[in-house]
Write a structure and sequence with these properties.
Elements (H helix, E strand, L loop, with lengths): L1 E2 L2 H4 L13 H7 L4 H30 L4 H26 L10 H37 L3 H27 L1 E2 L12 E2 L2 H30 L6 H11 L2 H19 L4 H24 L4 H8 L22 E3 L3 E2 L28 E4 L7 E4 L14 E2 L2 E3 L6 H7 L10
Antiparallel strand pairs: 1-3, 2-3, 4-9, 5-8, 6-7
Pfam family, one: Fung_rhodopsin
Membrane topology: Multi-pass membrane protein
Protein name: Rhodopsin domain-containing protein
Length: about 425
């Protein structure tokens, strides 16, 4: 920490101001990004809300409940809304205009509210990464080593995001020194903040690329129709767009955080932070829409309610599946054609059944039945009726069913 002058606080890239009273100065002073900030920020946030609402519609309609990754996206969306609200206050104070034409009070308010908006904005694009990893781990079931690798990346990124928030809020002592140069105190060199912010942004972009390439690598090795393979690869890898946004935003960080014209150049960081966060949430939601798109491509209507009493996808919603009662007799066969030879001492006293009917209730259910034998004089009829229930570790969702190779007929009549 060292004593800082106003120029030291945001002096990494000094702003060259045209001579006062010249035509160049008038043109420079007329530059205004306030409208661009507000329109871009709230439009992207509105699109994000629509995507999240559609995601929840699919989850609740098909799966009857939300999953852990859904709650991370809710938290991210709340952070985005808070960041947009604080940024709107900053714009009202003068963010988007040049620092030199603002009053001292406006300059202080711009720095304070803009810095405050950055903090939830960081988590706006940080939390969706957790949701994406949760989704990929659930769908693709990566090996233990790669799973540890993914979660290590996420842990490092989340810690770096929290540390960056700490640097933004605590780089001056007292904190008021950051937005009010008249307050006595010390501030950390702005280079430290910008360098760490660039590291965080670059690492975030690297994670986005990994999360986009990994599902493509896995899916291209699976045996499924090419159209579905390509479609799933695209929707699971759309987060690469967020990686591109993160790279661009990282490149402009020094010119935003480190400029003496903070009120004007920080506007681009506000805009691209919102774009990055919105892109990540949309990317995390796109895979959930895959069953909808697959169904539309196969001629279904995703918004028509099923008239059936039993929905075909019901067996993917529950944690356990009960098999129908099965009578195990000599000669009974299972669905695959094998024998169910579970009778022991009964073999000597039970006559062999006649015809066997075999049926299936779908994935996770099986019925095996044999004709009930008629006991003769002096014989005893012994029948074993067994109910078998098996459990999955968790319910299966439509997207997972697609990755596992089930057809759209499994979910087209929700």
């Amino acid at each position: 920490m060292s004593s800082s002058s106003p120029e030291d606080l945001y002096g990494l890239h000094p702003e060259e101001i045209p001579p006062l009273g010249s035509p160049e100065f008038d043109e420079w002073a007329a530059q205004d990004m306030r409208q661009s900030i507000l329109i871009t920020m709230w439009l992207m946030l509105a699109l994000t809300v629509i995507f999240v609402a559609m995601r929840f519609y699919v989850r609740v309609r098909v799966f009857s409940r939300l999953l852990v990754d859904d709650y991370y996206l809710i938290a991210a969306l709340l952070c985005g809304a808070l960041s947009a609200t604080l940024a709107t206050i900053a714009v009202d104070s003068g963010n988007g205009l040049h620092m030199a034409i603002l009053s001292d009070r406006q300059q202080q308010d711009v720095v304070m509210w803009t810095t405050a908006a950055f903090c939830p904005g960081i988590m706006f694009f940080g939390l969706p990464k957790v949701a994406i990893v949760l989704l990929l781990v659930r769908l693709l079931d990566p090996p233990k080593g790669f799973r540890i690798f993914l979660w290590s990346l996420i842990a490092i990124s989340q810690v770096s995001f929290i540390c960056l928030i700490g640097l933004l809020l605590g780089r001056c002592n007292p904190p008021a020194r950051m937005w009010n140069p008249a307050v006595d105190g010390d501030c950390m060199d702005i280079h430290i903040v910008t360098d760490f912010a660039m590291f965080t942004g670059a690492f975030s972009a690297f994670i986005d690329v990994v999360l986009a390439v990994y599902p493509a690598f896995v899916l291209l090795q699976t045996k499924m129709p090419l159209r579905r393979k390509v479609g799933l690869t695209v929707v699971l890898g759309v987060g690469a767009v967020g990686g591109g946004v993160a790279i661009y935003k990282t490149l402009i960080i020094p010119y935003g955080l480190g400029s003496t014209d903070f009120s004007y150049h920080s506007a681009r960081i506000i805009i691209w932070t919102t774009v990055e966060g919105s892109t990540h949430i949309m990317a995390a939601s796109m895979p959930v829409f895959a069953p909808l798109m697959d169904m539309v491509l196969n001629g279904g209507n995703p918004f028509r309610r099923s008239k059936r009493a039993e929905k075909p996808y019901k067996h993917f919603r529950t944690n356990s599946h009960a098999m129908n009662s099965i009578s195990f007799d000599k000669g009974a066969v299972n669905e695959a054609g094998g024998s169910n030879n579970f009778s022991e001492s009964q073999d000597d006293i039970l006559p062999v059944g006649k015809d066997v009917k075999v049926g299936s209730d779908g994935v996770g259910k099986m019925k095996t039945r044999s004709m009930t034998p008629m006991p003769g004089p002096g014989e005893i009829l012994c029948t074993n009726e067994i109910d078998i229930t098996y459990e999955r570790k968790r319910p299966m969702e439509p997207l997972e069913a697609m990755v596992r190779g089930y057809g759209s007929a499994s979910w087209k009549d929700w």
